[in-house]
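haha ok so turns out i had the wrong file open the whole time. this is the CORRECT one, sorry everyone. sequence first:
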Amino acid sequence: MNTRKLCVALGLTFAVASAFAESPQEASIRKLIQPRLGDGAAVDSVTKTPYSGLFEVRVGSEIFYTDAQAKYLFVGRILDANTTEDYTKARVDELSKIKFSDLPLESALKTVKGNGKRVIAVFEDPNCGYCKRFRQNLQDVDNVTVYTFLYNILSPDSAVKSKNIWCSADRNKAWDDWMLNNKAAPTAPEACNTPNDKIKALGMKMRITGTPTIFFTDGSRIPGAIDAKGLEAKLASVK
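then structure:
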């Protein structure tokens, strides 16, 4: 079976599996594995895979594998021996997808460059050095609409800086001034309301653990400060 057909088969396998309740064997494996993962780690699903009798154990967006008796736990990636395609990464990417239209875009900064036909959403912290690098890279990308969610997770004063920016007369300019030129926004009025808490709760629900995290209209995400060339390539691949 070639790589493309195998990928389709894997997708169908997991799609069908997710549409039904766990089998008795999968439920049994869940019960055996759960105590071995330690406190705070909850098994979300157990699914039989096409990989030599292995079972996928999903904990949040993380994937592990075990055998039919739950005797061994495999931590790592499954690759195609011929093409080196990473099937575990493909599965994690699929699990990490969102419905782009569900994002509360009214609670984001909106910047339109050129015709703005290509659209991304970015979760950023004002104290994030990698976010500032990404902002520099964005200057070389045209014909894009960028929705920026101020996601305050790095420092106690991140929320303060975000409030000052959100409450500025020109939010986009205040954001660019800070991220590109290190020019702080004026102190916001106490009575000014922000979506800070709402966005932080949303980011946690979406399991965003670092900034920047970039989302595309197909629901996929890329964590980290991707360069302009990489962003252009990704945008070209989004249908």
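The two ends are 26 Å apart (CA to CA).
again sry for the mixup
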